[in-house]
Amino acid sequence: MKNIVILGSTGSIGVSALDVIKTLGPDYKVLAISAGRNGDLFLKQVLEFKPKYATVASQESYDKIKDLIPAEVKLLTPTPESLCELASLKEADLIINGLVGAAGFKPLMAAIKAGKVIALANKEPIVMAGSVIMQECQKYGATIVPVDSEPSAVFQSLENCDIHTYRQEAKNIKKVLLTASGGPFLKYKGNLDDVKPEQALAHPRWKMGKKITIDSATLMNKGFETIEIMHLFNLPLEKVKIVVHPQSIVHSAVEYEDGAIVAELSNPDMRLPIQYAITYPKRYPCPVKPLSILDMARLDFMEPDFSAFPCLSLAQHAAKKGGSFGAVLNGADEVCVEAFLKGQIKFTDIAKIISKVFSTHEADFKEKITLEDALSFDSWARQKAKEFIK
Ligand SMILES: NC(=O)c1ccc[n+]([C@@H]2O[C@H](COP(=O)([O-])OP(=O)(O)OC[C@H]3O[C@@H](n4cnc5c(N)ncnc54)[C@H](OP(=O)(O)O)[C@@H]3O)[C@@H](O)[C@H]2O)c1
Description:
The protein has about 400 residues and is α/β, with parallel strands linked by helices. Among the domains are: about 1-145, Rossmann fold; about 145-180 and about 220-305, no CATH class. It has 16 helices and 11 strands. It has helices at about 10-25, 40-50, 60-65, 80-85, 105-115, 125-140, 150-155, 165-170, 195-200, 210-220, 220-235, 270-280, 310-320, 325-340, 350-360, 370-390; strands at about 1-5, 30-35, 55, 75, 95, 115-120, 145, 175-180, 240-245, 250-255, 260-265. The strands form 2 sheets. Strands 4-3-2-1-5-6-7 form a 7-stranded parallel sheet, with helices on both faces. Strands 9-8-10-11 form a 4-stranded mixed sheet, covered by helices on one side. β1 (about 1-5), α1 and β2 (about 30-35) form a beta-alpha-beta unit. The chain is globular. NADP nicotinamide-adenine-dinucleotide phosphate binds near residues 11, 38 and 100.
């Protein structure tokens, strides 16, 4: 029996994770779930999965549902500490981190300090402080299993795919081919200055939360994944090559020294990498529609357009510099994405504002950061981005 904690159960990743667990049967048990503001869906999930522990971050949602929670479910107080408590539960065998943005940073650290196996979708903490997070994993005996489809594809394409040794294994890689769908504006003929949030939210291949969908439209998400893959697999930037692949069938590939390219192919549906992170090293039938290779018309691959999508270069700058730049990148990006969704800035302002925050940060750049530094650079970048938005 595997006892599973799902942080962010009401989000796109969380809902898919619950769906997978439901079909896997009694060997996989939902031990705890957490939500942010969506109290209605959270209550429905509590009633269906009857976890031992649950927490909802919003006080308003908590007040609305607290008397409707069954007695056998322990509802924790709506505080950030409760998320950390769930992330480090003694009985937990696997923590699925489906939180979004820097909100997942402290719970991830709590899971690492408790030496847990963490199925990680929430890439932003790795962008913020990947080097120190990987060191902490080693120190506390924690293990990160990738959930994000691209690092999961890299993991699955390794010669010996083992959750405890994959970082060492990856040194035999010549190159990672990190695939990108290209997002909704791949072939856009209009002016990107004029695009509206609804257009940017209409991703052609994936149904995801708003933040990652906007990051996919700017291609910042691909920059984040470059940094994520560098840290998870201990690879330099030069070994991660972004390739646009509009069909989203090849979820990334590994090129070896002899020229062989090994890839993972499937229909674009997060339930597959989520399930593999849960059942690893076993594979079971999955609710994802199987890929019919004979029906597959074609697979296209092309170079990304760095000039149309400047967020890619910004992320690569942060990847090259390392240190405090990751936290600055993520903090500024979170503020800009929110401002774009609220109609306060243009789509193209996202990269412009992050670039200004970067220029301001150059003088204070710190090469070696601690976890506390990452959080304070994150706050600084948010504040600076807000000043530039005004
Ligand atoms: N969606 C995908 O297909 C996909 C693919 C690869 C990687 N990822 C990564 O996975 C992570 C989650 O993405 P998503 O698309 O699932 O996001 P999402 O749909 O926005 O879900 C985020 C979850 O986190 C909760 N949450 C947000 N802020 C919180 C806070 N301050 N305190 C407590 N809970 C909070 C939300 O609760 P409420 O909804 O109740 O407010 C929700 O349950 C992101 O880092 C993303 O980059 C996602």
